[in-house]
């Protein structure tokens, strides 16, 4: 049996931990640069606020409903969800994290009759200790556990824990589960199945295995088998990413190389941090830039460039250096850029690393590794970006024409304090 833990409305729940006055009220979290809605509380969803709604439209259409909006604060969300994951890992040693707010547990060594109470008790403990509500789905396969988690989230009668432990329960659940909500069925596959009059997960299981394999691919067949109760999604397929992308749209438009370089440096640094977090290295970095295609009155341009490393890397300096080398090749003047991004790929484990026999920088690379490890430790203790590369800062002119240096080039006017990671933001209790 497997259990999946999913934090309910994760980002909004993290904000409410320190703002209990917002419990029961509509709350949304905005994307980078305060562009659009990326997370909604249950109350915001009930108002009809859609995911992806631009913030300016939210203020125009829902201004009368007193919706509280926050800029995304990933430092806070990452630290709060880490507390949740710590409690889960202690309750179930066979634990692996799937995303920032989701984790799978292998419950094969537990009695099936005890699982329901175990899940309900753990939900209560996590809520009491962290303030974040979680929903728990338990089933013989990971895909069925995801289905059970949806029922635990949507129906209060389950007390935040739904268990599918028999064929009767599996059939009943799948007949109520929309095909486009099934984990592993993307939008393109769902559209095809709906055209073939397949509307529920149960109807999908009634199709032939050969038809599923020939029409889609091996991953769709695995989903089909999982819904049948056959455990076949490999754990290693879920734990590490095969590529990592960090991209953003800018608050305005950028036409100078220096500012664009700062954004790309920050994105490359994020990618390298994610690589080290999952104990992996990359053999390729790619950079892409794009103008604003919603402005046909302006000249349009987009391009991408990649660099292959002789020896796979994960240090901030090497990834950022490779990204900036790519940016220099594709940057063109006379264009106003609206978006940029960095993708690292060719990912493998960081121990051992296969070196190239023409690479003579082994000593320098070891020094970089130790330096990066020291910087990570300092940033972990004192808050992210306590120490950054020079290229991650950008310089702008203030109203008096004086140069001023900033750490973050992302707009976040509504961001909450980092209550748990920065001494300057710690709560003061009266």
From TrEMBL:
The answer to whether UniProt assigns keyword Cytoplasm to this entry is no
What UniProt keywords are attached to this protein's entry? DNA damage, DNA repair, SOS mutagenesis, SOS response
Q: Which GO terms describe its molecular function?
A: damaged DNA binding; DNA-directed DNA polymerase activity
DNA damage listed as a keyword? yes
According to its UniProt entry, the protein's GO biological process terms are:
DNA repair; error-prone translesion synthesis; SOS response
Q: Which PROSITE patterns match?
A: UMUC (PS50173)
What is one term from the GO cellular component aspect held by the record? cytosol
A Pfam family of this chain: IMS_C
Q: Where is the UmuC domain?
A: 2-186
* Family to which the UniProt record says this protein belongs: Belongs to the DNA polymerase type-Y family.
Name listed for the protein in its UniProt record? SOS mutagenesis and repair protein UmuC
Source organism: Prevotella lacticifex
